[in-house]
Every structure is written in C-alpha cells, then in structure tokens.
Amino acid sequence: LALFDSAVASGQPVVVAARLDTAAIAKSGVVPDVLRRLVRARRVVGDVAVAEGRSKLAAQLAGRTPVEQDKIILEFVRTQAAVVLGHDSSGAITPDETFKALGFDSLSGVEFRNRLQAGTGLKLPATTVFDHPTPARLAQHVRQQVAPDEANAVHGEGAAHRLMSLLTELERSSAGVALDDQVKVTFLRRISALERALRGSADADAQDLDTVDDDALFQLIDGN
To answer: Is residue 106 a contact partner of residue 33, using CB atoms and an 8 Å limit?
Structure first.
C-alpha cells in the first residue's frame, strides 16, 4: 500500500515496483537501456567486457578459412536472433529473410543488438536490424568489424577458397535436379557470363552463349 501511495504521488504515467541491486548491475558492465537513468555502469568494467567478447569471437575464428569464418559468424547471428524471438534453435532463422519478416520490432531489435554487443565486443547502434536487414547481411557487417583485413581479402587465397566452396555446393545441389529446357538455357547463359568474368575478357576460343540463339542452345543441351 505504501508503494501504491508513492506511485500515485509520483506523477509518472507508468510505475514499476521492483527490487533492484543497482550496485550489481553497475558492476556487470552491461546496463539494459531501460535502467540507464537508474544505474551508471563502470566504464572500466564495460571495457573489459568488450575486450572479452571480442577475444572469444576472435578465438573461434582463429585458424579458420574465410568460408568457415563466414559460417561461424552467420551461425552466431542466427543463434542470437533465435534466442530473442524465443525459438528453440537457429534453424528457424532464415539467413536471407528480413528481420522484420522474422518478427523483430524496435524493442526486440534493441535486445538483439545488446546480445550481439555482449558476444562480439562491438559497438553497434540500436538500429542494427534496420541498417542490416537480414542475418546474412548483418553477419557480413560483423565480419568486417571483427576481422576487416581478412574480410577485405577478396582477391587472394580467401576469395579462391570461397569460390571453390560455392562451386562445390552448386555441383552438389544441381546433381539429379530435373530442369525444363528454358531454365537450362537461362542457367547456361549465366554460367557463360561467369566464365567470361573469370577470364577477365572474352576469349576468342570460347563460345559466347549470349549471342547464340535458343535452337543452338537446345542442341547443346541435348548433346548435339
């Protein structure tokens, strides 16, 4: 009753009666946004927490190939998103689906941001899920922040590993798949464009499938 009287007299539109150990919250170094006006976190402790988060993630990435690092960071992002949304596993979080479509709003977005900060040691804005709207794109951003030198190595050994991994996945996923002729034509044209891009220029000995009519492509598909 005394708390009720205090609440009525406070003049605040919304009041919560709760026991808070503000000293313990301050020592933790991670203060929820809703408590920022009540608790001032100790800066030193916060810096240590940031360093620990970054070192843990760096340890997971150490010695991994670029492709493996991408998978680790994406799985980390999906796992944190699953926890915030109340899912049992990261399998419920599709990498290329927008956070909004997955069920995030402003409040859950902030909670998600806080979990990412605690786990990576990065400073991320409250609008993170809107700035990087899918788990895949957010994972790329985190990768840029955690290991910028490796993430930017797009012309060296890391790029080769990534391309070979993608090619292996393409071969595996396309095995035994039945496609109609028109889809095959489109597929072949895109493969041809990729080949020319890797060559760096049009090879005089290579057949340019973009200039071949559909009848010729159908003959190629049939093995003639």
So the answer is: no
